[in-house]
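Students often ask why we bother predicting the structure of a whole assembly rather than each chain alone. The short answer is interfaces. A chain on its own may look different once its partners are present, and contacts between molecules only exist in the joint model. In this exercise we take two input lines together and write out one structure for the complete complex. Read the inputs first and try to guess which parts will touch.
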Amino acid sequence: MKKDIILAGVGGQGILSIAATIGLAAVDMGLHLKQAEVHGMSQRGGDVQSNLRISDKEIASDLIPKGKADIIISVEPMESLRYLPMLSPEGWLITNTTPYINIPNYPPMEKVMEEIEKLPHQVALDADKIAKDLGSGRSANMVILGAASPFLDIPVENLEKAITKLFTPKGEEVVDVNIKCFRAGREVSENNS
Amino acid sequence: MNRLLLLGDEAIAQAGIDAGISGVYAYPGTPSTEITEYILASKEAREKNIIASWTTNEKTAMEAALGMSYAGKRAMVCMKHVGLNVAADPFINSAITGANGGLIVLAADDPSMHSSQNEQDSRFYGKFAMIPMLEPSNQQEAYDMVIYGFDLSEKFKIPVLLRITTRLAHSRAGVVLNGKREQNKVGLPENYRRFILLPAIARRQYKQLLEQQAAYEDEALKSSFNQYIDGPDKSKGIITCGLGLNYLYENYPDRNVPFPVLKIGQYPVPTEMVRKLYNECESILVLEDGYPFLEEMLRGLLNHGKQINGRMDGTVPRDGELNPNIVAVALGMKDEWGNPIPEIVAPRPPSLCKGCPHIFSYNALNEAIAEFGKGRVFADIGCYALGALQPYDAISSCVDMGASITMAKGAADAGLVPAVAVIGDSTFTHSGMTGLLDAVIDNSPITVLVLDNATTAMTGGQPSSASGKIEDVCLALGVEKEHIHVINPIPKNHEENMNIMKKELLYKGVSVIIPRRECIVTATKRLKEKRKVK
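Now the answer. The structure tokens for the assembled complex follow.
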């Protein structure tokens, strides 16, 4: 088993809690993991990505080779496209469709969607709306994780266990809503793919 | 077995605790910051009374660590690569004095300049100082090398340089913890006069350092961090330093590299191992993250031996960090990328946060200085360097910590009047104060903006040594009281702030304006925690 995952978004959007959840589940299962993060200046509203690698064998490189990523998980639609050179021909792209616009030259949304829809394997969903409807606008990242979950080769129970563990310090309510968001995202993928 | 998921930086921090350090000294700098942050947050470190201190700059950190080592205890000092430039004086001289308690100097390099102004390779500093040097290839080695490094340092009574790069510093992996040792007791060096670097003593000490070189190399030869891994195909021998090994392995399923590989993790370079590889193989490929440090040594000036490939002949790009694809190309393998980035994807550079006080300082400054034209604002290292970007386009330089004030002085001395310096509070105490004194002594016509957001913001909000001291420092350095202004950078005060700047731009001496408002990120974090407590 080997999954090479690119997590993408804008600094401050919470891609690292997606990484932390997958990481926790993977480590619990006794898998090897390497995760390269971006710290420092780029976190100030710039594009950020994380290379997350999980495998049942020892992992050599902290970086995923270009053209070899199995999944791109993006919390922002334009950012999902920035990492296409990383994606393998069989790879999946899972992305949010709510744009994060903090630059004056953000492309028209229909053009962004056009590019996403060109891909043979993709799931695009409005995670912000789904999360808001479930009562927690801040949990859009868990909706995205849910949508990505069928492609991770990690049992859904393990992922939910990791979410519970990660959010328990913030209280039961926060755990519940994040699990709900996760399940709603998963449902979208199961119906679409 | 205690296995933790740790960043490279965190593995080094935990190893420091496990190796029995009594103190860590550091000035924040990407990618080294998380080491000291981890120790500061560690309950274990607190219980062991380990001193974890953000110092005013890297030089003071290095000297404090040397002092702790002098007193017999183990100390670690951490900095980013350019910080070692600031600490270079005590660093180089610490090789002459030697250490007493174990002393590790951690330099975190930033090839590809993810968050830096250059990609200098600290291994040259290790060679320059002629001290042993360690370079991990993964998080586990980073941990193990700290434990081993303190032994090495105490065995030879010499500081040890630990060199890492961004990719390792900020990447997580499982690390097994395997060392637990007590701290040293206070104890003077057997001969403390070796710390008195008067020429007569320094000459003797230096000779000793030279004599020790062979022993350091012998240690590297025996080290488990240096490995000769044989392979059947002798058409090529590969030397890897640091992360180079991982990218090599990535290109061979199950790590079956057909060529002999020499993995280097400890310096001085063990010549014997290199000679063996050179003699047995038809050509040599060098894979090192950073400058062609080893490659240059191997080629020599005349380069008339066997074929050597690496950064210097273009087999590997001359700049930037390594990755699996670069190494694949260097090995002559196919390198297939996914789809290209669609043209519509726009760059998304970092930017000042919404509500950041610097925005309003720059808005006022831009208007105040408009009549004199562009090219007069010398900025410094910090978030406010983002003032270079649109829509501000407010600065014309950003070179090194503290250079804003001194470059403005030089430009003003040359006749570029008015000249403005923009410097953050933490950068001001790091390296700005001495330059301000120069300007006061020469009465240079400069206007200095000390942007006081009460934190070291760019590295994540560490406390600033300047907090509560800036006006007093300026006064004490001789800036006249009526030319020191504290303003509040908020939109409502725009006119007032702009007028103060306008007035001081015309003053033919040193003036200091301090726009003071807490960083929006630390303020938000603080309020959130306050709410939690309630």
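Check your guess against this: Chain B has three domains: 2-222, 227-330, 357-522.
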